[in-house]
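Entry for the shared binder. Reason: the reviewer on the internal report wants the predicted structure included alongside the sequence.
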Amino acid sequence: MPRNRLHLNFELNTAEERAQFVQEYVAGLNFAPTESELETISNYILWGKSSNGKNAQQNGEIEIKKWAENPIESLEALAENPGFSETSLRPLSEPPIRVQRIVFDR
């Protein structure tokens, strides 16, 4: 995995400070940021606090995508789901399954 080339200042808390920092930072870059780096920069600004101390999600400005867009409301709907398997159901009283992790010497 390549090392992160971005050196963002996480000591800045507000979105306004972070946006100002990014404008100056991007102007001085000597490389073209990749798509994942641009997404990291946008998340850096997005998760900065506003004047009321909340980030963009807490203010309701954005909504994080949910895992299931249509929540399953009944057992029949769950059974109709193609990824559902009855063998995966276990009682809540049963301890969770632990998979042994095998470490190989190299």
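Summary line for the report: The longest helix spans residues 15-27.
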